[in-house]
Specification:
Blueprint: E1 15-19, E2 26-27, E3 30-31, H1 35-39, H2 41-49, E4 53-57, H3 74-84, E5 88-90, H4 97-105, E6 111-113, H5 128-135, E7 140-143, E8 165-167, H6 169-182, E9 189-193, H7 202-211, E10 214-217, H8 219-228, H9 243-253, E11 257-258, E12 262-266, E13 275-279, E14 288-292, H10 294-304, E15 309-313, H11 326-337, E16 341-344, H12 347-355, E17 364-365, H13 369-376, H14 382-385
Parallel strand pairs: 1-4, 1-7, 4-6, 5-6, 7-8, 9-10, 9-15, 10-11, 15-16, 16-17
Antiparallel strand pairs: 2-3, 12-13, 12-14
Helix pairs in contact: 8-9, 10-11
């Protein structure tokens, strides 16, 4: 990674303004999953060990205005306080005279949590005046919010124009592992793409095909490729508008693609649907493909034998329903048992490996779904581009 990290600058006795990704799931005012808060702990602890004071900023959800109190970061600050075992002060806003006073009065080793940056409409517009006000709170800026790095917002990109900007350890780790897949992949290298639509992943399909040895395609995306081969997918989700694109990809790269050969099908899109296992060219009328079948899993197993690098983004079936989760969970276990470097691209894939109970056996599970996808497409992420080069 060619970006400076928090270890490359002197932060002793300084006020460190750090962008974190505390966009955590909430229910009844309580945090239901603290994974993203825990992911920021190594950088937070390092900053506090350097006799610096720490000001944290994040967005949470999509509030319509500052009066949407359900989107307050107070609950996240309380979770952080218990994890750190130190008090975390809560600011009433992310800018303004009262917040400036709280930031100025912070002593070394103290932590202040700013209120949701999206309570200001200017945040998502990358309002530079707002960014300047945010920047006035600290001496240096650390971005550890990979999950927001693909957005040019005031707190991710604008702010770096006014302060020395470096990455935190989580950001560094994300860029290192995802960077391997894009810049210098080890071979044999297999990429796995799932999810519903090709149109969302055209660029990533093309980029990965230029880098990897084999590309496994599952989920709803696979239906469109199979339909492009002339198979009748019956009531399966097929993206008609992407059929020509799928045909063109098949013509250029069919030898690299691994598509399902059998499927678990259902008579309706429902957790209680009737199911059967059939070859993909034998789906009866009125039925739809909702998971890959056992022959396909055997194909995956033999393809993954001896690989050095695997990047996985998107489930291969409707894993939210137990009847159609077997393919995705079986794939997760194959990767857990593999000796390859396994990089899981955030979002649904991250939640699938967690549900399968194998998240800890993966080399790296990304904290950013959209950001990891754009990174794998080869795009420069604004929040990363804004950081100082080494």
């Amino acid at each position: 990674m060619n970006k400076k990290t928090v270890k490359d600058i002197d932060i002793k006795n300084k006020r460190v303004l750090m962008r974190v990704d505390f966009n955590v799931p909430m229910e009844n005012g309580k945090v239901t999953d603290d994974k993203r808060i825990r992911a920021a702990l190594p950088t937070i602890k390092y900053v506090l060990e350097q006799s610096a004071s720490l000001i944290l900023m994040s967005h949470l959800g999509r509030p319509r205005s500052a009066s949407d109190s359900e989107f307050s970061l107070r609950a996240a600050s309380e979770v952080l306080s218990s994890l750190l075992e130190v008090p975390v002060k809560m600011a009433p806003d992310c800018v303004g005279s009262e917040v400036e006073k709280m930031a100025k009065e912070l002593k070394a080793g103290e932590v202040l949590m700013l209120e949701n940056t999206r309570f200001h409409a200017g945040e998502e517009k990358n309002d530079l005046e707002l960014a300047k006000q945010m920047a006035s709170l600290g001496d240096v800026y650390v971005n550890d919010a990979f999950g927001s790095a693909h957005r040019a917002h005031s707190s991710t990109e604008g702010i770096a124009r006014f302060l020395p900007a470096v990455s935190g350890f989580l950001m560094e780790q994300e860029l290192e592992y995802l960077g391997r897949a894009v810049a210098h992949p080890e071979h044999p290298y297999i990429a796995i793409l799932g999810g519903a639509k090709i149109s969302d992943k055209i660029l990533v399909v093309e980029t990965l095909l230029s880098k990897c040895d084999k590309l496994i395609i599952g989920g709803g995306m696979a239906n469109t490729f199979l339909a492009a081969q002339g198979l009748n997918m019956q009531d399966s989700l097929v993206e008609e508008s992407s059929l020509e694109t799928a045909k063109s990809i098949l013509e250029k790269s069919s030898e690299k693609l691994i598509l399902p050969v059998d499927a678990i099908i259902a008579d309706k899109f429902d957790a209680e649907a009737n199911t059967q296992t059939v070859d993909v060219d034998k789906i009866p009328a009125g039925w739809r493909m909702l998971d890959v079948g056992p022959k396909t899993l055997e194909l995956y197993k033999s393809a993954l034998n001896g690989v050095k690098l695997v990047v996985w983004n998107g489930p291969v079936g409707v894993f939210e329903m137990a009847k159609f989760a077997e393919g995705t969970f079986a794939l997760a276990h194959m990767l857990a048992e593999s000796n390859a470097t396994t990089v899981i691209g955030g979002g649904d894939s991250a939640s699938a490996v967690k549900k399968a109970g194998v998240a800890k056996q993966m080399t790296h599970v990304s904290t950013g779904g959209g950001a990891s996808l754009e990174f794998l497409e080869g795009k420069e992420l604004p929040g990363v581009a804004a950081l100082l080069d080494k």
